[in-house]
Amino acid sequence: MRILSGIQPSGALHLGNYFGMMLPAIELQERGEAFYFIADYHSMTSLFDPEQRRRNTLDVAIDFLACGLDPAKSVFWKQSDLPEVTELSWLLSTLTPMGLLERCHSFKDKTARGISASHGLFAYPVLMAADILLFDSNIVPVGRDQKQHVEVTRDIAIKFNETYGATFVMPEPQIRESVAVVPGIDGQKMSKSYGNTIEIFGEEKATRKRIMGIQMDSRTPQEPKPDADKNLAIQLLKLVAPEDVGVDFERRLREGGLGYGDLKKGLFEHYWNHFAAARAKRAELAGNLDYVHQVLRDGAERARSVATVVLQKARRASGLC
Ligand code: ADP
Ligand code: TRP
Questions:
Q1: Does residue 197 sit within a domain?
Q2: Which of 133, 191, 196, 241 is deepest in the core (most CB within 10 A)?
Q3: What separation in angstroms does the CA of 80 have from each of 2, 24, 226?
Q4: Can you tell me the distance from the alpha carbon of 267 to that of 12, in angstroms, rounded to the nearest whole number?
């Protein structure tokens, strides 16, 4: 079984990225051949500062390794180290109906927020299809917002296979329902673009302030709160605290007696402890960048040995050679 996923270097990684995609990906390392990459080509649709892209790419590499991506178990590389993917993207784009891309929520959301649409932003799902199909991927672990892109990939693969003969493996999205949409500090989906994130490796003081600033209603601590399970801090606490602790906080909030300040304090403490080991590993990696670069170079080489075979198959099937 081949597992593949990518993450864009478009800003600091947050709890939505961690619980929605990174943790499932890390756990899947044990279950098959894991292929994970940093989608720097994709980041070019929304980030236009070269230095920042370089810095973010290295940060994502360090963060992912610190969180448990194990290069002995997973192939880990930087997308643009394999420009083959852009060639496959072209082959696929010639079979991709415009209407399929026009229907993509992610494209519609971005244009609705006033981001002017480049051809690259519009064609983004085709490049993502190339990422997935180039490695004969079976399983693609992602958050719910990426599900449609994997469905688009399947449509494109079917079209290619019908036109040029069986070439690509059909991928399946894998979404962990309990964390399909991790909420941000304003209750919307946590996202870099909404400015509502809690970073995995945020600075201590700033993150405490952010968590203590989460808006709550005006009910007094004593009042029972039958809707305790809907409380944002409870939802986040349940992700970062041991199960019995989460259940206990929720019970105390429901019954009355737990103030919002104490709840948020508990959330911060459990968040901070949850990532303590990863934070130490991160500091170690940040002091050993040669190692991080070497991991990505080795990963690119291993990824290339798969990609070149699949690309050649697609070239032959379509009559390019
Ligand atoms: P962002 O929305 O912050 O820009 P990305 O689009 O780069 O995040 O997402 C990277 C990965 O993390 C994707 O697989 C995405 O589905 C997942 N992800 C992002 N935000 C969340 C969230 N709030 N809940 C669950 N998964 C998420
Ligand atoms: N589009 C994905 C995101 O923003 C990142 C990505 C690019 C990806 N290529 C991929 C995810 C291939 C899974 C498979 O999160």
A1: no
A2: 133
A3: 21, 24, 51
A4: 20
Look at residue 194 and tell me if it is in a domain.
no
Assigned token pair, 87: 């060639």
Domain match, 206 and 128 both: no
297 shares its domain with 160:
yes
Q: CATH number of the domain at 169, please.
A: 3.40.50.620
Domain match, 52 and 154 both: yes
Q: What does the block give as tokens for 50? A: 């070269």
User: And the tokens for 31?
Assistant: 């279950």
Provide the angle, in degrees to the nearest 10, between the axes of the packed helices 147-164 and 105-112. Answer: 130
Structure-token pair, residue 241: 């605290």
Residues 132 and 228 in one domain: no
| Contact of 15 with 211, CB cutoff 8 Å | no
At residue 133, what is the residue type? L
Strands (E) in 67-138, as ranges, are: 74-78
Residues ≥6 apart with Cβ < 8 Å to 3? 25, 28, 29, 31, 32, 33, 34, 35, 137, 138, 139, 140, 141
Are 115 and 252 found together in one domain? Answer: no
Q: Can 205 be counted among the known catalytic residues? A: no
Judge if 234 and 138 occupy the same domain.
no
Let me know whether 256 and 312 are in one domain. no
Task: Give the pLDDT means over successive 10-residue stretches in the chain (321 positions).
Answer: 97 95 96 97 96 98 98 98 98 98 92 89 97 98 94 98 98 92 95 94 98 96 96 97 97 96 98 98 98 98 98 98 96
Tokens of 285: 């990696």
Pocket of ligand 2 (CB under 6 A): 4-8, 39, 42, 128, 131-132, 140, 142, 146, 149
Evaluate whether residue 192 is within a structural domain: no
For 131, the enclosing helix (H) or strand (E) is helix 119-133
Pairwise CA distance, residues 275 & 48, whole Å: 31
Ligand 1 — pocket residues by CB below 6 A? 7-8, 10, 16-17, 20-21, 142-143, 145-146, 179, 181-182, 189-193
DSSP annotation of 12 reads -
